[in-house]
User: Fold this.
Amino acid sequence: VQFSTGGTDDPTPKDMLSLVDRGPSGSPTAKAGAGFTGKRALRYAGTHQADGRAYSYNKIFDVNVAVGRDTELAYRIFPSMADGDRDYDATNVSVDLAFTDGTYLSDLDPVDQHGFALTPQGQGAAKILYVNQWNDVASRIGSVAAGKTVDRILLGYDSAKGPAKFRGWLDDVSLKTVAREKPKAHLSDYALTTRGTNSSGGFSRGNNFPATAVPHGFNFWTPVTNAGSLSWLYDYARANNADNLPTIEAFSASHEPSPWMGDRQTFQVMPSAASGTPDTSRTARALAFRHENETARPYYYGVTFENGLKAEMAPTDHAAALRFTYPGADASVVFDNVTEQAGLTLDKENGVVTGYSDVKSGLSTGATRLFVYGVFDAAVTDGASSGVKGYLKFKPGADHSVTLRLATSLISVDQAKDNLRQEIPDGTSFGTVKARAQKQWDKLLGKVEVQGATPDQLTTLYSSMYRLYLYPNSGFEKVGSKYQYASPFSPMPGQDTPTHTGAKIVDGKVYVNNGFWDTYRTTWPAYSLLTPSQAGEMV
Assistant:
């Protein structure tokens, strides 16, 4: 359906096309041929022929919505480059509202969440909208329109100069009550670990992945949308499935400085609610979810999948607690890794998983073997392994949950077992691990306090601080009464075994990973920020 109404005082009014289609054909960050959240989107397009101003408003919905003090208008918009490079004409667009009293939202000086005018010309002049990207736009219209009733939702183009061709897409238009956000009790809850993940090699918003960890932790723990990748671990949207939903293929230990450097020393697990023997292949085990059912914080990651299965992670320095809550009686956990450069052993009788990982990118200079040791809290009913792949089936408890306490070491399997004893001893609840990790982040983030900031500004601040204090990572372990590390700098005096490193064991502490990319690091080890003694040991 197309609705068109040309501007009445425009010397050369032109109709603007608006219709539902498959969505944008391509974007560096979005799924092609889809809306932002659905399979379709509303396309707008037109030709501005005049040298001066031209505008057009199209009705897209007839509604009857009362505006209260906390009413918010929100939508997502994808302005496209219709006329070649550096073409931003399609950003002169915004959603407008016609009220039953004959007034319009655009006449009331509304602003978006950034404080820019929410009018077509205002959005274009602000240069706030990225082209060839989905953009979030929100406005608390109750501050200017409380007491009015919305009669029609309009999409408007208005530009002070032409000629121009423009096109774009609109999705997820909403008018709803959104209560004012109360101050959060924990600063760590302002930090979003998915911030910066709507990125790609062609367009960066940070090129991040949602690392759950303690400050300067030995490991990162992350959901993985592409379990076969050593670079782009988590795509926010561009790898969505045929239903335009993101999918997770694994939850993984990670040590990635950036996608450009690549990951190393990985180990993957994935819950499955399949009956019978679970399929360990990446595509078969992948589970779809919605971002609104995802909680991504520095101290905790949780997601409820479309099939009802819930997965959660909470970190310590060398370990993590992973809890899987199943929708029914079928409960399995699948094991895997990015490549075959790893080993896996399953002890079904005791519910123990052990293994090692030599997985690393081409720039992971100095990376040594990683060892894992994990214990489940539920009785194992079946299991098998072959190479790096395997599975265990469980009889879950009354709450249908299975918890895995999993630790790592760069020294040995026995040291990984002892790291687990030190950090998550038997009987430690998932909630305790989560609370302790949150306390660490709250203490660190509490070094900076601000007044008068909006919730969005606090999210920007504390998300950036979280990302900063992920790095450098601890590379040492408590061995008996002293600290030691498997040296990434010295020649290996021995050979790796399935249970023990062949690397030189050195007394003291070492930190690795700057967490950034530069050309110098193409020839420098991925391990950096050395103390003088460590630099001497490397030499």
